[in-house]
Amino acid sequence: MAWDLELNPILLEELYVWIDSIPLSKTKTKIERDFSDGILVAEIIRHYLPDMVDMHNYTVANSFNPKKINWGQLNKRILCPLTLDLPDKIIIDLCNGKPGVVEIFLFKLRQKIDEELELRQKLESQRLPSPNQSLLALNIIDSKKESTNIVSSRSSRISKSIGSFTSRWVSRLFYEELKQQSLEQDEEIQILRAKLRRLEHILQLKDIRISELIEETQRKQLTILGTGKNKNKYTATVSHN
């Protein structure tokens, strides 16, 4: 993905108007500094796609390292599922408030949000699934059930382990390590679920497009057949005369 774009004044003005139309928790003064910790980015995504964002995962930051942590969380949890994976260099530039970088990022983010909203709208309009879609849904449901069973099994084992390890003869450090492992596993599962939802959307959208192409092909075939019949009638009339 190219990050060396140059936004002309018209695109920049449209971008600023779009940002101003969104209710944010912080007054915007200098855009590269205001967005450097990623908090306002999370708020923008939550405004349009509230199911994708948990604001408690992000904290207001003034120094570089906490800012980078916020951007890392955003990249892993939200931006990657939206196919807007940020390279490390771009994350560093955003944290440092490098002029011009945040505008390019927000421009791309707006495109991805629009694509996601359009995708969801098309899926919503297709409430009655085709046989292929039904099969896809069943496969996804089975996958989710299997994933849920794995998660439940892991959680159960970890919970039992934590319950026994919190006894007085086990060190607190070992208990904290187990707890951290549990949190990391939960995070990985959430990421996989987000990617699975995205894949489901893409496959269903392709199925919709295939159905549209089939209908269009059938209409064209009927038109060609109708034209052929008219030509045959005309030939027969001429021969008779």
TrEMBL record:
Domain CH-like: 15-110
Gene Ontology cellular component annotations, sorted alphabetically: axoneme
Source organism, top-level taxon: Eukaryota
SUPFAM superfamilies in alphabetical order: Calponin-homology domain, CH-domain
Organism for this UniProt entry: Rotaria socialis
A GO BP entry: regulation of cytoskeleton organization
Pfam families linked: CH_2
Lineage of origin: Eukaryota, Metazoa, Spiralia, Gnathifera, Rotifera
InterPro entries reported for this sequence: CH_2 (IPR010441), CH_dom_sf (IPR036872), Spermatogenesis_Ciliary_MAP (IPR052111)
GO molecular function list: microtubule binding
Name of the protein: CH-like domain-containing protein
